[in-house]
Amino acid sequence: MQEGANTLPKITLGDAPYVKAFKYWKKKIKLAKIADLSARDVERANFVFSIYDFEGNGTVDAVNLGDMLRALNLNPTLSTIEKVGGTKRRVNEKKLKSDEFLPIFSQVKKDKEQGGFEDFLECLKLYDKEENGKMMSAELSHTLLSLGERLSDAETDELLKDCMDTEDDDGFIPYERKY
Protein backbone atom coordinates (compact mmCIF):
# COMPACT_ATOMS: atom_id res chain seq x y z
CA MET A 1 0.00 0.00 0.00
CA GLN A 2 1.39 3.40 -0.99
CA GLU A 3 1.62 6.09 1.69
CA GLY A 4 -0.42 9.15 0.73
CA ALA A 5 -2.81 11.71 2.12
CA ASN A 6 -5.50 9.19 3.06
CA THR A 7 -3.41 6.14 3.92
CA LEU A 8 -1.64 5.12 7.08
CA PRO A 9 2.17 5.34 7.26
CA LYS A 10 4.41 2.59 5.99
CA ILE A 11 5.96 0.75 8.89
CA THR A 12 9.21 -1.12 8.39
CA LEU A 13 10.12 -4.32 10.16
CA GLY A 14 13.10 -2.63 11.85
CA ASP A 15 10.90 -0.24 13.85
CA ALA A 16 10.31 -0.99 17.51
CA PRO A 17 6.68 -1.87 18.36
CA TYR A 18 6.07 1.38 20.23
CA VAL A 19 7.44 3.37 17.26
CA LYS A 20 5.08 1.49 14.96
CA ALA A 21 2.13 2.24 17.23
CA PHE A 22 3.11 5.89 17.53
CA LYS A 23 3.36 6.34 13.74
CA TYR A 24 0.04 4.58 13.26
CA TRP A 25 -1.92 6.66 15.77
CA LYS A 26 -0.25 9.95 14.85
CA LYS A 27 -1.32 9.53 11.22
CA LYS A 28 -4.79 8.29 12.21
CA ILE A 29 -5.40 11.34 14.46
CA LYS A 30 -4.21 13.71 11.73
CA LEU A 31 -6.57 12.12 9.21
CA ALA A 32 -9.47 12.38 11.66
CA LYS A 33 -8.80 16.09 12.20
CA ILE A 34 -9.10 16.87 8.49
CA ALA A 35 -11.78 14.30 7.71
CA ASP A 36 -14.47 16.99 7.76
CA LEU A 37 -12.77 18.90 4.93
CA SER A 38 -14.08 18.28 1.46
CA ALA A 39 -11.72 17.61 -1.42
CA ARG A 40 -12.47 21.16 -2.61
CA ASP A 41 -11.52 22.59 0.81
CA VAL A 42 -8.24 20.67 0.79
CA GLU A 43 -7.53 21.89 -2.76
CA ARG A 44 -8.25 25.51 -1.79
CA ALA A 45 -6.14 25.24 1.37
CA ASN A 46 -3.23 23.76 -0.57
CA PHE A 47 -3.52 26.54 -3.17
CA VAL A 48 -3.41 29.24 -0.47
CA PHE A 49 -0.53 27.41 1.19
CA SER A 50 1.41 27.43 -2.09
CA ILE A 51 0.88 31.18 -2.47
CA TYR A 52 2.33 31.87 0.99
CA ASP A 53 5.20 29.44 0.49
CA PHE A 54 7.51 32.26 -0.57
CA GLU A 55 10.68 30.17 -0.51
CA GLY A 56 9.18 27.20 -2.34
CA ASN A 57 10.39 24.72 0.27
CA GLY A 58 6.99 23.44 1.46
CA THR A 59 6.77 25.66 4.54
CA VAL A 60 5.06 28.93 5.38
CA ASP A 61 5.83 31.41 8.11
CA ALA A 62 3.37 31.20 11.01
CA VAL A 63 3.16 35.00 11.02
CA ASN A 64 1.07 34.64 7.81
CA LEU A 65 -1.38 32.14 9.30
CA GLY A 66 -4.13 34.72 9.84
CA ASP A 67 -3.81 36.02 6.29
CA MET A 68 -3.97 32.48 4.95
CA LEU A 69 -7.13 31.68 6.90
CA ARG A 70 -8.72 34.95 5.78
CA ALA A 71 -7.85 34.08 2.18
CA LEU A 72 -9.95 30.96 2.74
CA ASN A 73 -12.98 33.12 3.67
CA LEU A 74 -12.61 32.61 7.41
CA ASN A 75 -12.61 35.41 9.96
CA PRO A 76 -10.48 34.28 12.90
CA THR A 77 -9.71 36.64 15.75
CA LEU A 78 -6.13 37.42 16.68
CA SER A 79 -6.44 35.29 19.80
CA THR A 80 -7.74 32.36 17.74
CA ILE A 81 -4.79 32.67 15.36
CA GLU A 82 -2.38 32.71 18.26
CA LYS A 83 -4.14 29.76 19.91
CA VAL A 84 -3.85 27.56 16.81
CA GLY A 85 -0.19 28.31 16.21
CA GLY A 86 0.21 31.70 14.59
CA THR A 87 2.91 34.11 15.70
CA LYS A 88 2.90 37.86 16.11
CA ARG A 89 5.00 39.93 13.73
CA ARG A 90 8.19 37.92 14.07
CA VAL A 91 9.23 36.57 10.72
CA ASN A 92 10.93 33.15 10.73
CA GLU A 93 9.99 32.47 14.36
CA LYS A 94 7.96 29.39 13.42
CA LYS A 95 7.35 27.53 10.16
CA LEU A 96 4.33 25.41 9.26
CA LYS A 97 4.15 22.53 6.79
CA SER A 98 1.10 21.76 4.68
CA ASP A 99 0.16 18.75 6.79
CA GLU A 100 0.21 21.02 9.88
CA PHE A 101 -1.87 23.72 8.17
CA LEU A 102 -4.80 21.49 7.11
CA PRO A 103 -5.83 20.53 10.68
CA ILE A 104 -5.57 24.21 11.68
CA PHE A 105 -7.80 25.18 8.75
CA SER A 106 -10.26 22.46 9.71
CA GLN A 107 -10.35 23.56 13.35
CA VAL A 108 -10.88 27.24 12.55
CA LYS A 109 -13.50 26.39 9.92
CA LYS A 110 -15.51 24.54 12.59
CA ASP A 111 -15.40 27.54 14.94
CA LYS A 112 -18.88 29.09 15.05
CA GLU A 113 -17.90 32.15 17.10
CA GLN A 114 -16.67 34.13 14.12
CA GLY A 115 -18.86 36.69 12.46
CA GLY A 116 -19.08 37.81 8.90
CA PHE A 117 -19.78 41.07 7.10
CA GLU A 118 -23.54 40.80 7.60
CA ASP A 119 -23.07 40.26 11.35
CA PHE A 120 -20.89 43.35 11.53
CA LEU A 121 -23.52 45.43 9.71
CA GLU A 122 -26.21 44.23 12.10
CA CYS A 123 -24.09 45.42 15.02
CA LEU A 124 -23.62 48.83 13.40
CA LYS A 125 -27.38 49.14 12.90
CA LEU A 126 -27.72 49.22 16.69
CA TYR A 127 -26.05 52.64 16.63
CA ASP A 128 -28.24 53.94 13.80
CA LYS A 129 -30.84 55.76 15.89
CA GLU A 130 -32.56 57.41 12.92
CA GLU A 131 -32.45 54.21 10.80
CA ASN A 132 -31.02 56.10 7.83
CA GLY A 133 -27.76 54.16 7.31
CA LYS A 134 -25.67 56.62 9.35
CA MET A 135 -24.10 56.52 12.78
CA MET A 136 -22.01 58.87 14.89
CA SER A 137 -18.34 58.71 13.97
CA ALA A 138 -17.46 59.14 17.66
CA GLU A 139 -19.56 56.07 18.58
CA LEU A 140 -17.80 53.91 16.00
CA SER A 141 -14.43 55.15 17.18
CA HIS A 142 -15.35 54.44 20.81
CA THR A 143 -16.61 50.95 19.91
CA LEU A 144 -13.39 50.09 18.07
CA LEU A 145 -11.32 51.37 20.98
CA SER A 146 -13.21 49.61 23.76
CA LEU A 147 -15.02 46.44 22.64
CA GLY A 148 -13.83 43.02 21.48
CA GLU A 149 -10.27 42.96 20.21
CA ARG A 150 -9.51 46.58 20.97
CA LEU A 151 -7.68 48.71 18.45
CA SER A 152 -5.16 51.39 19.38
CA ASP A 153 -5.86 55.08 18.75
CA ALA A 154 -3.56 55.06 15.72
CA GLU A 155 -5.18 51.90 14.28
CA THR A 156 -8.66 53.37 14.79
CA ASP A 157 -7.72 56.66 13.13
CA GLU A 158 -6.17 54.83 10.17
CA LEU A 159 -9.19 52.55 9.79
CA LEU A 160 -11.67 55.42 9.87
CA LYS A 161 -9.58 57.47 7.44
CA ASP A 162 -9.11 54.62 4.95
CA CYS A 163 -12.48 52.91 5.11
CA MET A 164 -15.11 55.46 6.01
CA ASP A 165 -16.49 58.52 4.29
CA THR A 166 -15.87 61.87 5.94
CA GLU A 167 -18.35 62.79 8.63
CA ASP A 168 -21.04 65.36 7.92
CA ASP A 169 -21.61 68.58 9.87
CA ASP A 170 -23.48 66.71 12.60
CA GLY A 171 -20.71 64.08 13.07
CA PHE A 172 -22.49 61.24 11.25
CA ILE A 173 -20.92 58.83 8.78
CA PRO A 174 -22.63 56.33 6.49
CA TYR A 175 -21.74 52.80 7.57
CA GLU A 176 -23.28 50.91 4.68
CA ARG A 177 -22.54 51.69 1.07
CA LYS A 178 -25.11 51.11 -1.62
CA TYR A 179 -23.49 49.86 -4.83
UniProtKB/TrEMBL annotation:
By its UniProt entry, which PROSITE patterns does this protein fall under? EF_HAND_2
Q: Which UniProt keywords apply?
A: Motor protein, Muscle protein, Myosin, Repeat
Transmembrane segment boundaries: none
Molecular function GO labels: calcium ion binding
Q: Enumerate the spans annotated as EF-hand domain.
A: 40-75
User: What superkingdom does the record give?
Assistant: Eukaryota
User: Which Gene Ontology terms of cellular component type are present?
Assistant: muscle myosin complex
Q: How does it assemble?
A: Myosin is a hexamer of 2 heavy chains and 4 light chains.
Q: What is this protein's record name?
A: Myosin light chain alkali
Species whose genome carries this gene: Henosepilachna vigintioctopunctata
